[in-house]
Fold this sequence. Notes:
The complex is a heterotrimer. Chain B is of the alpha/beta class. Chain B contains 14 helices and 19 strands.
Amino acid sequence: MLLPILLSFLISEAPAETAPPVKLVISADAVYSADGNLLEGGTVAIAGGKIAAVVPGGDGGEGALHVAAITPGLIDLSPRIHTGDYSVEEASEVRPGDLAAGSLDLFDKRWERLLESGVTTVMVGPAYENVIGGLSSVIKTGGKKRIEARTIAEGNALIGAFGGQAARGNSPVFGRPTTFFARRPTTRMGTEWAHRKAFYDTLAAMRDEERQFEGWEAMASVIEGERPFFVQAGATQDIRTACYLKEEFGLPSMVLDGAAEATREPEILKRAGAAVVLPPHAAQGRTAVDNAFMPWNTADELLELGVPVALSAHGSASANANLGMQAGYAMRGGLELDEALRAVTLTPAELAGVADRVGTIEVGKDADLVLWSGTPFAATSRVIGVVLDGEVVFSAK
Amino acid sequence: MRLTKTQLILSGAFCASLFAAPADALSDKLVIEAGHIILHDAEDIEDGVIVVENGRIAAIGKADEVELPWDAVVVGGPDYTAAPGFVEALTSRGMDRANENLDVVPFLNVRDSIDPVNFYFEDAKRWGITTINVQQGTNTVVSGNGRIVKPTGVTVEEMTVRPNYGYMIAIDPKSGKSRATQRQALRNAFGDLRRELEDLVGTKRDEADTARREALAQGRDQDDQKSPGRAMTGSGWTVEGLELVDRSEIDEKLRPLLSMVEGRAYTFIYCGAPMDVQPAIDFARDNGLAERATLVLDDSCWKAADAIKASGMSVILDSDLMHVETDPVTEEETETFVPKVFADKGIPFALQSANSSTNSLWFQAAVCVANGMTRDQALAAVTTSPAMIIGLEKEVGKLAPGMAANVLLLSGDPLDITTKVHKAIIDGAVIYDHTQDTRNRHLLEGEAPRGATAAETEEVEEPSKTDDDADDEETGDEPAEGESGDEPGDEPGDEHQEHEEK
Amino acid sequence: MKTLIQSLALAGGLAAATLPTFANDPVATEALAEPTLAIAASHVLVEGGVVMDDGMVLVGDGRILAVGKAADLEGNLPDGVNVVRHDGWLSAGLVAANSTLGLRASGDSTGPFMSGLHLMHGFDDESKSLERARALGLTAAGVEAGRSNVIGGVGGVIKTDGSVLRKSANLTLCMTQPAVRTNRFPTTPGTAMGAVRKRFEGAADSSALAKAKAGQLTTSIAVNTLADIERALYVAEDLGLRAVIRGGADHSEFATELAELGAGVALSPLGLSTNARAYNSLKALSKAGVPFAFGIADGGNAASLRESAALAVSGGVDRATAWNAITTNAAKLIGAGDRVGRVATGLDADLVLWTGDPLLIASSPAAVYIGGAKSQGDSH
């Protein structure tokens, strides 16, 4: 019954010969579109892999798909679903031009599990083993298993790491070293030095052709604000260091990944204008990145400060740690449902630069949807279906 | 059970900071007010009260329908939900080590291993677990004696709800053994008992013979000998003539096995694979354990559910609720939600928690609802069902007059992720108050505990004082194992913690 | 007047009319040599799926001059022709899609990019490995670099009598372990891929890379995982290579793309523990028309070839395809399809006499001929 209405809606919106046919119609008790709109009792129509219409009412009728709730597909900016050491070129510590997508393994089972937990888009970069590891890409978690087919934004951000991890594998040069890991940096401050040197060299390269080095354009794009600088910084001192660096070089856009202790330096964070991706909530507070302590109300505090916050699950698909549960835990820490939803949909889309395509349920955007058995992010709900680019790619039995 | 003032003082600052000073316990009457009271097999009571006297529930009903004692202390309010405390059907946490190196150790007792200040007990209160069945772990042949405790008290005796309760028997091999050698070890253990009993009976019979011959030879009557012991009873095997033996003469290492065989002791039989289930059932039957035994199952054992149904035994499920199998050719993964299999077949089952925080009993129940079970089934699996399995169905697991006053005052629905335990009451005493829970307030709200030094923002950092050190200072009172190192694999996503810094 | 040869050719042609025709190098009638050898066998396995009973093959000047029914050909034999009668099977010699036969070393560890390395410079034509291979019925093989470098070098095609059929036939690429992940650049498949593409772009016209790009050399791309195959196809398509995917256990996912690219697959030998997934993959490749063959550079020996073919048959692959995988298609993949791999007029006389059906493990070689010369076995 709704179909003719939808069809006529489409026809009136677009020239008849280019409007693709409505392929899928799903109705729900609640449609959360993540831009603040909540439709209590609504229907989503999909055509050509995109959202064609979002209308109130309609229980679909017989044969139509009806679920308790629909949200946009979830987005994780730090799924860490790379191939570990295999994902970062360790021949040197500063490799701005390397595309991490070249080393992905789309056949890893983790992609399917991630998709089944409701995550439809991820940002994949190299592991945080290098000072500057290369460029990330934004990739859909389902669809044809080819990098080109899944990539929606290639090289969207420059990836770097503060803290001890980049220095971890290196050792000081003694005698005649037999490995190329006998090099700087070997400490946290050495890592920071390496960052600053890389940016200084880039400024030089921008002025003088003779000073150009491999990958300098990628670094220059960060200085120019064409790309965000996405860095891992968990402990308070690393967050400070990152913020100071941003201010020193006037980098227009920076996102701190795993910034567990973000609320300990609220002023510096706010002043620097950095955004934050939080690591998974830890049972006793000690998170994966440098054991930094993250109180569970961190997301709430940061939102109050006006700092953009995205949540991440570090690729976990398990019932108690997946991205949906992270949103639930953030609610336990004080977030409202719509704030938690935003932190796993629209905000990460904005930070990754793909908000024109994903992150909300709006006409014209990619038809990436999560179908829930109850209120999203509740422990008593689960993901019962996932639509990706208009296709139902997962359906629970 | 009430804490006297003396015991309080002796507890130490740490306990005092966490628990409410139980002034409430000084009155033997308590009234718990709640906006919802969750009952078993009945509608929730809206705006109700629970009256507690002498540690037991005296009455439950709507506030305006129940007569309240004038001298009761009142806790709670209309914003809270009252629920029964959760029952942990089985755990080996809270001890220094889960198992011994020796195979057959029924003469040991967890009383000697339980550590009242172990983080598990502290966290249990926080997540509403009020009754805990502590047994040794599954890496054994026959374990030591367990006990049922509550997570409050500074000595094991104070914590004890039911002492000397339960033994763990493993069909799944102890590490270092194969299934064949495990079975042999089990057979030997009970075989040794049988042989010992038969030997003793034989000796006694010989002695009796000798005495009779002597009396004959000396031409006197033999006194009527009363049996020093009692005959052996048991649904499996028995040794005739055991009444001739004084029970105290039986090797004390084997005596616990005798109580198992005679059906006087409870056993938990661990199956690590579906192939272990029928042998477990048979072993239990053959040795007279079946009446007082519960199967403890690995997640793969759902495949043997029919055999379990036929046996009539109850089960305790693994904390891993979703069993995943991978097809070796297509590499497709098939998932089976284990509790539902047992619920659908009508087999009584209880759940275990994986850790006491993000995967506690409330969460396991919530996941059951998410996977298609009813709310009642899910709640029962963490309250009335485990209570029944450990023989405390008349004491704990539901809110009803006559039961022990183990009540949770929750900020919302028990299965809601944003719900916090506001207060926990055990035997009528408030043993947990969230407003006093320093550690949890630090975790949830970043609230620094009283007396902690705040981290200074310095331009130049001294290498020795990092913010990580400052954190340790703040949470320094608590035992170190409470932090990340304690329960490996408990905290999802925390796998990297130990490896981060070289 | 027709010469004897011409009448033979006619007769052979008549006999051959019952067999499918192949795209051979046309052999000019004037250049046809006189037959010096005639082998008659109870069964002649001409090519995959085609068996001639009581057949005969005429050999001269190292080549196959005619194939036909013994009854037809026997009568017209010139004097002095050595006639061999074999109560058993006759087939083309086996061909391995890749190997390291005769090489002392399959790679040089100087650096990861060794496009200037010519493996045939290290080819020992008297190596015992050739003799062993020959005794097992292997007559021709591709010789390729190992997997320890990203660009391993240029290899050739040899015969197991020590002769070199082609000095430069293939280029080996490996953008996965073990070439990647050592204590030197590149440490990731992505950067390996990037470095390879960059070198191809900047390659001089005379270099091996340019030749590979032009299709004059086959590019053998070594893989392990599915992701490796994906990357290999990406590179092959991007650079327009004539690619052979070397290794990998399951190619079914990529069957369509492989067919579109005109690429082939050189598998490592199958074994008794190979599971259904691998056989399903072979069937999928076959269905999509992707030629596949077996190679022994990454493991196995000449015996593994027949084992693999036999296992493939038991795994559900049809006989013809299984046989082609160790003869015709292997020859095609190494760029020697015009010379070896079938019993057909004009091709090299690389033939094996078997005690029974060569696709049965119980059979063994009774005699091996390379270029018409017997190199193995007793006379009948």
